[in-house]
């Protein structure tokens, strides 16, 4: 048995996430030789299927989701041969005996992946324990959303914590598995050039944009209870913010990194009083266009409650109140039905203390570091050079020093976030997973904002689908003499 060999028990094996993301990711790991020979997987779901029918469903999903030039027969066959299926009523302890039997005599640790709604985590964990399916090496992987607010997240974490110690709980935030997000750690802590500049003396402000082109995609029921703040900011955007703002960890151990992230979350300024109206903009999309086609507004989507005040967009200006970042605004925005899918972080460096070039170009004269997650992953540093040509004098020209991962490292395929995360679970490494206190501090901060919205009864502002959000979100940054940066 090698270090990364596991028995994977996947609860919710016929669900959307499993078919769309988890099986393709596992297939790719297998194809790249990263699934040791003994690794096997049992899919668990309520449907009445036998192993063969299950393998066929997974094969169908792989055919749809994996690029055709990456589907090769040998790898597919080897991967499918690892899969078993168990029909299970998750809420009743009886069937769990079959899980224990599946594991019987295995020398490998078991990883339990809960790709199911959080309300049944408790049943599954307790039933696994009662049936004797667990031992001291079993790890558990859970998906967001971890709750709806601090109190509900604590309940969920308590239920898992009754059965598993924190050191064996892997809370997924799939943004942490994105290649560029990890590159942030390398960029910041391996490059003295950035390491020395990464503070309020040299950085004027930071932008984080996570714009999605999609709308609600048949998830109205879930989404309307959540809204963009809970669905995206509480987890993905705050995780990005933490990685940008945290102090250097003393090493790359999971807890060293997570301790630093927690300090950032604790230092985030709350929105109180006037800041609620001034520094946060909520939006909800109305009918408009997406990729040239007419699309309905949020309130006209299938299953919609036409009185809903749930936000599909949020923009905010916040600050990390500590020595490194005092006075540096962090502008965050994220929304559905934006003009394009664009996720990027822009670090704006301060200008030189004394300026000697063309006065008209003064506003140009600063560097930006753009860390792009989507659509294509890469890093660009905007620098100023002299415009070429005899007639240009000392005209400045901003231009990018680009690191396009696809071009710079053409042989390496950029793995999907889930590939990386599953690999880390197999290795038993937690640094890309979210610790309980991170989830809770993030909720604390979001909860006070939501309470403020509720107390003031602030309905969202409208924006047409296919636009960059409510005009007020643009005004929020332009009144500081800045603008949202959408180039690369
Ligand atoms: C999920 C949210 O966590 O992230 C979705 O629940 C969102 O609403 C998705 O669309 C975005 O992920 P990505 O990787 O496509 O940016």
Description of the structure:
By secondary structure, the chain is α/β, with parallel strands linked by helices. It contains 16 helices and 17 strands. The protein has helices spanning 16-31, 51-65, 73-80, 97-103, 121-130, 150-163, 179-190, 192-195, 220-226, 228-245, 254-267, 274-278, 405-408, 417-427, 436-456, 471-478, and strands at 7-11, 40-45, 83-87, 110-114, 139-142, 169-171, 203-211, 280-286, 288-290, 293-295, 313-318, 330-335, 342-349, 368-374, 378-386, 396-404, 461-464. It has a 9-stranded mixed beta sheet with strand order 16-15-14-13-7-12-11-8-17, sandwiched between helices. Strands 3-2-1-4-5-6 form a 6-stranded parallel beta sheet. A two-stranded antiparallel ribbon has the order 9-10. Strand 1 (7-11), helix 1 (16-31) and strand 2 (40-45) form a beta-alpha-beta unit. Helix 5 (121-130) packs parallel to helix 6 (150-163). It is globular, with a radius of gyration of 24 Å. It starts with 6 loop residues before the first strand and ends in a 10-residue tail after the last helix. The relative contact order is 0.13. The model has no long low-confidence stretch (mean pLDDT 94). The structure holds 6-O-phosphono-beta-D-glucopyranose. Residues 144, 212, 231, 343 line the site of 6-O-phosphono-beta-D-glucopyranose. Pathway: Carbohydrate degradation; pentose phosphate pathway; D-ribulose 5-phosphate from D-glucose 6-phosphate (oxidative stage): step 1/3. NADP(+) binds at residues 46, 89-90, 144. Catalyzes the oxidation of glucose 6-phosphate to 6-phosphogluconolactone.
């Amino acid at each position: 048995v090698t270090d990364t060999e596991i028995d994977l028990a996947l609860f919710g094996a016929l669900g959307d996430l499993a078919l769309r993301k988890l099986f393709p990711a596992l297939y790719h790991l297998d194809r790249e030789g990263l699934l040791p020979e003994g690794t096997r997987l049992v899919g668990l779901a309520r449907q009445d299927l036998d192993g063969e029918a299950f393998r066929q469903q997974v094969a169908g999903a792989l055919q749809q989701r994996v690029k055709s030039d990456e589907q090769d027969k040998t790898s597919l066959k080897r991967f499918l041969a690892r899969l078993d299926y168990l029909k299970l009523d998750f809420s009743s302890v009886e069937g769990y005996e079959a899980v224990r039997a599946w594991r019987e005599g295995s020398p490998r640790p078991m990883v339990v992946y809960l790709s199911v709604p959080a309300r049944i985590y408790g049943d599954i964990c307790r039933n696994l324990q009662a049936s004797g399916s667990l031992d001291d090496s079993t790890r558990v992987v859970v998906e967001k959303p971890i709750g709806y607010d601090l109190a509900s997240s604590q309940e969920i974490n308590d239920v898992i914590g009754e059965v598993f110690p924190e050191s064996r709980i892997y809370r997924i935030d799939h943004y942490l598995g994105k290649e560029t997000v990890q590159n942030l750690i390398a960029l910041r802590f391996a490059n003295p050039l950035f390491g020395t500049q990464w503070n309020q003396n040299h950085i004027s402000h930071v932008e984080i944009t996570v714009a999605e082109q999609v709308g609600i995609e048949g998830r109205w029921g879930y989404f309307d209870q959540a809204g963009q703040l809970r669905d995206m900011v509480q987890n993905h955007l705050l995780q990005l913010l933490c990685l940008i703002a945290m102090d250097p960890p003393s090493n790359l151990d999971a807890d060293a990194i997570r301790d630093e992230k927690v300090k950032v979350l604790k230092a985030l300024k709350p929105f109180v009083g006037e800041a609620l109206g001034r520094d946060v903009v909520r939006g909800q999309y109305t009918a408009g266009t997406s990729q040239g086609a007419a699309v309905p507004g949020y309130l006209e989507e299938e299953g919609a409650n036409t009185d809903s005040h749930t936000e599909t967009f949020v923009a905010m200006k916040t600050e990390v109140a500590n020595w490194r970042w005092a006075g540096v605004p962090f502008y965050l925005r994220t929304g559905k039905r934006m003009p394009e899918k664009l996720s990027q972080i822009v670090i704006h460096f301060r200008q030189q203390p004394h300026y000697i070039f063309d006065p008209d170009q003064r506003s140009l004269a600063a560097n930006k570091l753009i860390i792009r997650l989507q659509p294509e992953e890469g890093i660009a540093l905007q620098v100023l050079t002299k415009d070429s040509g005899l007639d240009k004098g000392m005209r400045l020209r901003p231009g990018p020093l680009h690191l396009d991962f696809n071009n710079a490292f053409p042989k390496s395929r950029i793995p999907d976030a889930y590939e990386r995360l599953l690999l880390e679970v197999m290795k038993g490494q937690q640094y890309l997973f979210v610790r309980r206190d991170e989830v809770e501090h993030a909720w604390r901060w979001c909860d006070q904002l939501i309470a403020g919205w509720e107390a003031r009864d602030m309905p969202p502002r409208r924006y047409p689908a296919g636009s960059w959000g409510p005009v007020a979100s643009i005004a929020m940054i332009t009144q500081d003499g800045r603008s949202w940066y959408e180039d690369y």
